[in-house]
Amino acid sequence: MYGFIADLHIGCNIKNEDIMNSIEFYFDVIRKHSEICEQIFVCGDLFDHKLNTDELIFASDVILRIVCNQCGENGKHAPVTFIHGTYSHDQEQYKIFIPLIEAITGVHIRYLEECGSFTLHNGARVLCIPQEYGNIDYSSMFNKEYDIIVGHGPMVSSTKTPCPVGTSEICMSADQLGDISKVCIFGHYHEYVNFGKNVFYAGTCTRWKFGEPGEKVFLICDNNWNVTKIKNPFAIEFIKKEINSLDELREHISKPITSPIRFIIHCKENELEEYHSILNVYKKNKMISCKFISEHDQKREKISMSDVRTSNVEPISALIAYISEKYHVDTRDLIDVYVQKINKE
């Protein structure tokens, strides 16, 4: 059997323990599988951005956990193939870790930043397609057949185009890849997608922002090329909640909030101050954000908890809020410049 991980985005807004718990959960599923794991594929965007020192330390822990996985035969480490993803995320940071990983006894890794093929020790033929840009001729690769195709980047099919494509990005045909492989799994798009023909976007195994409502899963493929998705219990939910009254907000906010929640507040103009008073108590809870939809013009405005003004009242914040509510102009940045100048002088 084979394991697939995509788009971990180390350094993004996910708790470290959620990432580590997710990986350990997945590897435990692989260890308990009736078939031996032949290979684990990391399908791009292992990193989220150029990491700072603390993030690099955590990245070391994650990568060690992936390569020292004990998922192979008799508790040995299953080989791992890392596939280059989006440059703005990866930032050549694999070069920091690859030489160190290769020095670990019992670890077998492969890293590909250009399209290439190879054969696994069990005879399975693999084509790797990292994300590349520009005019690249893949015809010599695509006129052959493979057992497994793994990659990173935008894919489209005759029925599905889930991911927007940049002008310089190379877009792959899911239909074509399905014709030349027994299973094809890509990273890049953050929601799980089944294109048909045993072609998939793995999606992210964790959820780290609003706008990712789909289930978060891991994928495994058995030796008969059957792909199974396993729901990740450590992928926290991002909840949107419509609020139509002050009492409804009080009821929801009085309960423990452990997952990110965004309140969509439908309110009258004369209720704004009281809503702010209720939310002010929870300003420091980063799990909470809100949008106000005023009765006056139904304009949606995202307001972070740091912007919720007190009822007793900070004059500059009150001024910014007043201008925003009355004239629909955000003067926050402009006024901040003047405040900093005054404080400095």
Primary descriptors:
elongated, alpha/beta, 345 residues, six-stranded mixed β-sheet
Report on the structure:
The protein has 345 residues and is α/β, with parallel strands linked by helices. Helix content is 28%, strand content 24%. It contains 10 helices and 18 strands. Strands 4-3-2-1-13-14 form a 6-stranded mixed sheet, with helices on one face. The protein has a 6-stranded mixed sheet with strand order 5-6-7-10-12-11. α8 links the parallel β16 and β17. α1 packs parallel to α2. The longest helix has 16 residues. The chain starts with a strand and ends with a helix. The mean pLDDT is 88.
Category from helices, strands and their pairing: alpha/beta
Helix/strand order = EHEHEHHEEEHEEEHEEEEEEHEHEEHH
Number of strands: 18
First-residue to last-residue Cα separation: 67 Å
Largest sheet descriptor: 6 strands, mixed
Uncertain parts: none
Helix content: 25-40%
Order of neighbouring strands in the sheet with most strands: 4-3-2-1-13-14
Number of helical regions: 10
Binned strand content: 15-25%
Please tell me how large the radius of gyration is.
24 Å
What is the 3D form? Answer: elongated
- The residue-averaged pLDDT reads 88
Write a brief caption for the model:
This protein is α/β, with parallel strands linked by helices. The protein has helices spanning 16-31, 53-67, 87-90, 94-102, 139-142, 174-179, 246-253, 272-280, 315-327, 332-344, and strands spanning 2-5, 39-42, 80-83, 109-112, 116-119, 125-129, 146-152, 155-156, 172-173, 181-187, 193-196, 199-201, 217-221, 227-231, 239-243, 261-267, 288-294, 300-304. The longest helix has 16 residues, at 16-31.
